[in-house]
Each structure stands twice: as C-alpha cells, then as structure tokens.
Amino acid sequence: MNVVWFKRDLRIEDHEALLEASRRGPVLPLYILEPGLWKQPDVSQRHWVFLNDCLHELNASLKDLGQPLIIKRGGAVEVLEELYQRHTIKALWSHQETWNAWTYERDKAVKQWCRTKHVPWHEPSQNGVIRRLRDRDGWAGRWYGQMKKPVLDSPVALQSIQETSDTLPSAAELGLPVDALGSLQEGGRREGLKLLQGFLSERGEAYTKEMSTPVTAFESCSRLSAHLAFGTISVREAFQASEWRSQEIKRMPRGMKGKWPSALRSFSGRLRWHCHFIQKLEDEPRIEFENMHPAYDGLRDSGFNEIFFEAWKAGKTGYPMVDACMRALSATGWLNFRMRAMLMSFSSYHLWLHWRQPALHLAKLFTDYEPGIHYSQVQMQSGTTGINAIRIYNPIKQGIDQDPEGTFIRQWIPELCDMDQSFIHTPWLAKSQMADYPMPVVDEKTARKAAAGKIYGLRKNNTSHKAVAQEIVNKHGSRKSGLPRAAGRKARKDNKQEELPL
Ligand SMILES: Cc1cc2nc3c(=O)[nH]c(=O)nc-3n(C[C@H](O)[C@H](O)[C@H](O)COP(=O)(O)OP(=O)(O)OC[C@H]3O[C@@H](n4cnc5c(N)ncnc54)[C@H](O)[C@@H]3O)c2cc1C
C-alpha cells in the first residue's frame, strides 16, 4: 500500500499526493497526531479546536471514497515504523511542508527513516513555494505557472485497508492551556468553501477600502487564512475561483462592475504574498529565531520589560486601539493585517520588546498561524529585516483613522463604554470617565521618538548595513519580472511598499 500522510493539506480535492498515490494502488490515509508538536510554544488550544473540525470533515470525505482517515498518536517515525511492521509500504506520500523548526527537524528524521527502510518519499508541492530555490528571479512567473495548473479532482474511490485508528485526545490531555475563546472560526472544507464563495460573490466588493479598519474587516476580508493554513482549501483553488470571478466581472457592462476589479486584484495579489512570505522561511529557516539582518542583533536583547509585555498581552496598555485589537484577537483568533501590524509595531517600538516572545504570543492567538508569513511579517513590523521602510504606527492616529466613532473600541473595552466621544482615543485626558481602564504604560510620542532614534541611528552608523541589505533583497526580495502584464503593474506598486534596498 501507499501511505498518504496528511499534514497542512486537510482536503481530498486538489490533493496531488492523494491522487497520485491512489493511482498506484491501495492507500492508507494517515494523520499523525504528534504530542511533541503540541508541546511547542507556538501552538494553542484554538489551533487544536480548528484542526478537530478539519479532521472530522476530512474523515467523512475519505469514508465516502471507501477508506476512512487513520489517526495515529505518537512521533512520526515511531508511527511509520509501527505501520511498516504490519504492512508492505510501497511509498510515503505527503505535500511539501514549510512550517516551524520542530516540523523541519521531524521531517529530517522521517527522511532518514525512509532511506533506512528503502521507502521512497514523494513530496509534491501544494502551493507556489519552491524547494531548494536557487534564485528569486522569475519566482512570480513560476508562482503563476503553479496557480494556472488545473485543480485536481479527488480520487473516485479508495480500496479499504484493515487498520485501526486512535481516538483524538482532548486539549487537556495534550497539555494545552485553556484558551479564553469567544467565537472561533469554524474549521473544515465546507466552511472554507462557504467563505470563499461568499467573499467572491458578495462580501468582498469593498475589500480594498474596508480591509484596513477592524470595524469592517471582519466581514469584508475573505477570512480564508486559517483554511489556507490548514489546507482545507488550496491556494490554487482560491486563486482560480478569484480569476473566474474576474472574468465574470470583465464581461459585465461598465457601470455594473462596481469595486470588484480592484478588490479581486488585491485579493489575488495577497494570495501571491502568502507564498512569497513562506518562501522566505523555506529559504532561511533561521528567521524564526534570528533577525533577518544581523545588524539588529543585540538591539533589543537586554532588559525585556515583563510588565510592558504583560500589559500588551492583557490588552491593558492604556492605548484603546491597541487594547481593543488585542482583546478582539484573543476572543476571536483573527485580526486584519493593519491592526496586526500595529500590535507588533507597538510592542517592538513603543515598548521596545524583542520580537520573539510577542511573536510566540501572537502565533498562539492567530488561528491562521503560518510560520512563514508570521515571522517574516513580525520582523518586517519590528524593523529587523533591514530591507523594509521603518513603519512605526501611532496607535492614537490609527484609532482616529480606523475607528473614528470608537465603535470597535467600545465593543472590546467595556471600561470605555461611556467615554465621551472626544476622548475615546485619549481616555487619559478624561480621567474621571476612565472607570478602571489603565493609564498609558508609556508616553506615545516620547517612546516613538526614542525608538526611531535608535533604529535610524543604527542604520546610519552601521557601514555594512546597505551591502548586507542588498544581499537580503537578492535572496528574498520580490521581483518585477515574470508577471503577466496586468498583475505586473500592481506588483510593482506592491514591491515599492514592501521591499526596498535601503
Ligand atoms: C505581525 C503579523 C503577523 C501575521 N501572521 C500571519 C499568520 O500567521 N498567518 C497568516 O495567514 N497571515 C498572517 N499575517 C498576514 C495577514 O494579516 C493575514 O494573512 C490576513 O489578515 C488574514 O485574513 P484574511 O484571510 O481575511 O486575508 P485576506 O485579506 O482576505 O487575504 C487573502 C489571503 O492572502 C494571504 N495574505 C493576506 N495578507 C497577507 C500578507 N500581508 N502577507 C502574506 N499573506 C497575506 C492570506 O493567506 C490570506 O488568507 C500576519 C500579518 C502581520 C502584520
């Protein structure tokens, strides 16, 4: 038999590993529940809850094909060895995975096991991330090539194999701390498809305008991130659905198109970013732990302020927009891009905290935690890539711009519920109305200026900064070439915002 190891690809459609294995005979569809993974500092109960939904549906789909999902508890090598003792394994199939350092090491151990047992391991790619990439030139063109390939059908049927499945442990059995969850997104492919369809047909029209403010973003963004992270939907499926919708909009008379053309262009561009950022971690796994640009080593390494960190985590910094965002994220597992960037920027600049601990905290809160995107973005918003413009978000300005009425703030900070409208973004100026909401942990302007001084000072005084930054751009930077013409114009604009050799 062939073993198909499901990892971050919890679907049966557009699943090359499953389809190819099924063409070669009986298939054992396997999910390995690895207790070691669930002990890592970047996973949490909400990931577990979402995963359970996904596995439940995946099992039902596989059952319909004739062979349910086999769940095994244990280390991957241990589980494979146990199966090997009882079955003749022709080959192991799984999609390439770019995840955290733990899964990277585990894959190396599995590779070694496969070598020893002479079991070939086939790992097709499931997105636009390229293994052993030599050169970033032409990457975008290759990404388009991958996205344009036909979406694969699920196998028609699977032969049944005699094998028992373990039961899924509870979150408590895995030792996962109880999560203060309010309303978490539902997992599973059915829900993912519903989101995709709803976004492309209705919700997404004002996406470009409404994605930045948390007042509208929860509804106007696609909300597909957790599904893409767990693979209930492939990036290619999302891309092709968006392309199909673009064609439909193109055929409409001029006055009927509304804001769709821009919304779909932005969405499709972000699907490319999804892979673009994961590619960085694939090419340089150390960025999970270390600054992308070494000039920043030591910058924030001493004097980690635990009091600031606790205030930030609890949504009690005294800055309403920061606190509302943190509380909303803790309760729902999601936040829009700009507000994620503001949270990270506040932690790294105003509070001057090294990015690693805050990154782990956010990883646990984001249901869609995707290490490749996460660590690249964390470093970008902390100024340690050396190739991005420094962006220090002023949380008061963000509040005024993105939540002028204070609707979002009042929703998540009940202490400010009765605050006068004029002081909702600066409650410390109306102390009598503050209830038990805290005073600011730092003075915004002073902290921002101090951070800017340190980071610009470092760039200015480090003579090799520019040369090293150029090397980083060569390795990781997005390129213009290789894109179709329409996408190329937009990408050029994106590149300007995204990666600049300084
Ligand atoms: C500090 C920080 C950490 C982040 N960590 C993660 C993470 O762990 N997982 C994650 O999926 N996204 C992460 N993002 C990127 C982004 O915020 C989310 O992808 C987005 O908010 C998800 O919502 P959505 O699915 O509605 O996105 P949409 O706006 O509808 O976009 C569609 C898809 O495009 C991709 N995408 C969107 N924006 C980006 C981006 N800036 N970079 C890369 N891909 C993008 C996502 O896969 C997303 O699902 C992070 C951003 C920041 C600033």
Task: Outline the secondary-structure elements.
Blueprint: E1 2-6, H1 16-22, E2 27-33, H2 45-65, E3 70-73, H3 76-86, E4 91-93, H4 101-117, E5 121-122, H5 139-148, H6 189-201, H7 207-210, H8 214-220, H9 225-230, H10 235-250, H11 260-283, H12 306-314, H13 320-332, H14 337-350, H15 356-365, H16 371-382, H17 395-402, H18 407-412, H19 444-461, H20 465-476, H21 485-498
Parallel strand pairs: 1-2, 1-4, 2-3, 4-5
CATH architecture of the largest domain: Orthogonal Bundle
Radius of gyration, whole Å: 24 Å
**Mean pLDDT, all residues:** 94
Please state how the strands of the largest beta sheet are arranged side by side.
3-2-1-4-5
Largest sheet: 5 strands, parallel
What is the CATH class of the largest domain? Mainly Alpha
Low-confidence stretches: 494-502
Structural overview:
- With 502 residues, the chain is mainly alpha-helical.
- It folds into 3 domains: 2-126, Rossmann fold (3-Layer(aba) Sandwich), CATH 3.40.50.620; 127-151 and 190-283, Alpha Horseshoe (Serine Threonine Protein Phosphatase 5, Tetratricopeptide repeat), CATH 1.25.40; 288-462, DNA Cyclobutane Dipyrimidine Photolyase, subunit A, domain 3 (Orthogonal Bundle), CATH 1.10.579.10.
- It contains 21 helices and 5 strands.
- The protein has a 5-stranded parallel sheet, covered by helices on one side.
- Strand 1, helix 1 (16-22) and strand 2 (27-33) form a beta-alpha-beta unit.
- Helix 10 (235-250) runs antiparallel to helix 11 (260-283) and helix 14 (337-350) packs across helix 16.
- The radius of gyration is 24 Å and the shape is globular.
- The N and C termini lie far apart (54 Å).
- The model is unreliable at 494-502 (pLDDT under 50).
- The chain binds flavin-adenine dinucleotide.
